[in-house]
Amino acid sequence: MRWKFDQAPDVACVTCRSVLAGHPVLVATHHEDDHSWAFTDGAPIDMAKVLVVAMAEVVERHTDLDEIADLPPGWSATRASANGPWSRQQND
């Protein structure tokens, strides 16, 4: 697999337990301030359940994330379901 993200596979990202357990990523955020990434299931964020893992741990489980690897810093991508199209929007 060719790595498409602007951060290395071993760089930390934020995610949730359900994403690591196989639930689809429905929200991806590429933060503008430090170019970090967050991959979540779309549920409200519970800080007690947030995990920091290597990007590869998420991307290797969810290969469909390659579709948004070019998301610019300061942008998010969302979708309604695992097979739904990504919608991209600039963060406020």
Secondary structure category: mainly beta
SSE string, helices as H and strands as E: EHEEEHEE
Report the end-to-end length measured between terminal Cα atoms.
33 Å
Count the strands? 6
Range of strand content: 25-35%
Percent helix: under 10%
Low-confidence blocks of residues: none
Reading side by side through the largest sheet, how are the strands ordered? Answer: 4-1-3-2-5-6
**Rg measurement, Å:** 12 Å
Mean pLDDT equals 95
Counted by DSSP, the helix tally is 2
What is the overall shape?
A: globular
Largest sheet entry:
6 strands, mixed
Number of domains: 1
Annotate the secondary structure layout:
Elements: E1 12-16, H1 17-20, E2 27-30, E3 37-40, E4 50-54, H2 55-59, E5 75-78, E6 87-90
Parallel strand pairs: 1-3
Antiparallel strand pairs: 1-4, 2-3, 2-5, 5-6
Region (Disordered): 71-92
Biased composition (Polar residues): 78-92
